[in-house]
Each structure stands twice: as structure tokens, then as C-alpha cells.
Amino acid sequence: MNVFEAIREKGITARQAAEHCGIKVNRNSMAVCPFHKDKNPSMKIDRRYFCFGCGEKGDAIDFVAKFYGLGKKEAALQIALDFGITFEENRGRKPPPKRKRQLSPEQRFERAEKKCFRVLSDYLCCLRDWNEKYAPHTAEEEWHPLFCEALEKKDHIEYLLDILLYAPLSERVELVTDYGEEVLRIERRLEQCAAGAEGGVGKNNGKDGAGITAGNMV
Questions:
Q1: 3-state DSSP: the chain helix, strand, coil percent, rounded to 5?
Q2: Which CATH number fits domain 3-90: 3.10.450.50, 3.30.559.10, 3.40.1190.20, 3.90.580.10?
């Protein structure tokens, strides 16, 4: 019995294979199609699958092959590994390694854009909080470094978020590319604040525990 026959004998459905790949299938056996930019569930998936949006269709092996970018034999071997199916060909053989899905350039950009938006949104919340929390109460009071940072950065961060929300794709790509390293620095800064490092950004020349100054953020 070869691997294809073993999978058929076990009755592995496209739904089982898809759910093992992390696809969520609702009670009506519908799922968001992973093979095109699908916002609403347009893939009917049970024993076999069919997408009403892009036309992709097939069985469990076809789904895994398409999802991971494999040939049918490799996809069948992956299903056998995932579901513990034994067959004649694999006796004494080392099982194939677990496959990781290769992201397309569009998917990599979407992931980077979402991270950029999340980090900048969190930073804006901090800036607004610092603007209120550390505002001086008298004209003679020394301005807190976090209040200075909020005054300096808040409008600019709001501007960047507006680009991510409303600008054409070309401008969003340019922003994510140009500000990638700065977003990583902001993310580290926010992690320090969450860990209680905010108190370290005080009278110490505007520096926190990692030596990040208010002036070198973005």
C-alpha cells in the first residue's frame, strides 16, 4: 500500500488537513481562503474543498500541496506524517521534516505593515499618556523628559499612522521600508516601559535604562 492509498483508506478529508494547517472552518463548513486575499469565508471545505472566490479546488492532498508549495507526493508524505499514517514505502525510512509555509512578498509586507501599525499605535498611546501625566503645573517647574518627548513626537506619529490607514499602497510600502529600524527601536522602548523601565526615564538627562534618549526616537 503506497502513501496515496493509505491516506484514502484513512479517509483524511480536506477539512482535517486544512484545520491541521491552522485554517479555521466555521459551522457551515466555510473558511477564509488562504490562496487569495479573502476577507469573508468563500471556501467550502469538507471532504473536498472549493473556493467560490478564486476557483481553487481539490482533496486533502491538493490542499496541503497548494498551502505549502509542495508536489503531490511530498504533500501526501506530509499528511502521513501529520496524522501518523503508516504505509509500505515508509518502513525503515526517516520521516520528512515538518514544513513551514513560505510567505509571498505580499504576505511579508502585510505582516510588516501590521507590526508597524501596532507599534506606532502603542507608542502614540504612551505619548498621549506622558503628555498628560508629566505636564508641568507651574511655569517654573522643570519639564520632564517624557513630556518633552510627547510634545516632540506625538504629531509625527499621528501623521505616520494616517499614512498607514489612508495612503495609497506605494506610500505605505515606502513608510514601512524607511521606518523599519525606527519601529524596532520604538518596540524595544515600549517593552522596557512595560517592564517598569519608564521610571528610569527621569532626571537622568532624558535617558532610560538602555541609553535611549527622547531625541533619537523616530
A1: 55, 5, 40
A2: 3.90.580.10
